[in-house]
Amino acid sequence: MNLSILIPLLNEEESLKELYTWIIKVMQENNYSYEIIFLDDGSTDDSWSIIESFAQENTAVKGVRFMKNFGKSQALHAGFAKAQGDVIITMDADLQDSPEEIPGLYEMIVKGKYDLVSGWKKKRYDSVVAKNLPSKLFNWAARKTSGVELNDFNCGLKAYKNIVVKNIEVSGEMHRYIPVLAKNAGFGKIGEKVVQHQARKYGETKFGMERFVNGFLDLITIWFLSRFGKRPMHLFGAIGSLMFIIGFIVAGFIGVAKLYHMYNDMRYTLVTNNPWFYIALTSMVLGTQLFLAGFLGEIILRTKNNEERYKVSSEVNFL
């Protein structure tokens, strides 16, 4: 099978029929063998009924429905597990991603030998203040922090080799950083393609300004995980040990200085009256806590990840 097209969605009943018709047209024009997997992230409108109608008329259409809204990352995680195509295409259901871009993305993976190709909506039709400027700042920070040179991390239109999606795990809200996850997994050939951005035709965006705040927090998380995720003791243990040693040396110096003054009948002050004593004590306490944090992190890595996963309520056309 040439293509698996994954479409995560939440309450997009107005756009689904137009999107489906458009994708089928592109598939037929290029003679692709394909599957379309709709990932209904707990929609409360008629989205699932529409997906079921597509599946009845076309066996290449498949659907997964979550019992509630688990988030886009969980939807993509479910889709990656189900996808069977040689090339995986992800795109949003709001018609802002054009299916006409699929052949170009497919060619870059197959002929260009890229592991992953991310879309770049160079010309956007969003609000400059509400989305464009925060997005540029966010993407700049993501490039500098991750080392992945992409201009648009947030673009939902991406293409992957099948082996890539089978070797990464998307959790939390890490869908923005799938290219970084792929790089950390050893897939280094990551490309970018300028794609057409279309103004939203139906409904309203499901993401507000809080996504940029969450995005920056997730960026810090993925930076830490990429560098110290498998060895937290190397960070916390090193900083903790250094702080403890510095505090211990300062406290020792204060104690020795007092004993020296006492032995030589010189004037001295009580250790508890010396502010450096409390600084040293605080440094040792914090150092011990950081060391323990690293130690506990190492233990947690050896336990099972109990993060809540999506729960599926319905599926169509999967064997």
Automatic annotation (TrEMBL):
The chain crosses the membrane at residues 235-256, 276-301. GO terms for biological process: lipopolysaccharide biosynthetic process. Keywords: Cell membrane, Glycosyltransferase, Lipopolysaccharide biosynthesis, Membrane, Transferase, Transmembrane, Transmembrane helix. It comes from the Bacteria. GO terms for cellular component: plasma membrane. GO terms for molecular function: undecaprenyl-phosphate 4-deoxy-4-formamido-L-arabinose transferase activity. The keyword Cell membrane applies. Pfam families: Glycos_transf_2. The keyword Cell membrane applies. Residues 4-137 form the Glycosyltransferase 2-like domain. This is Glycosyltransferase involved in cell wall biosynthesis.
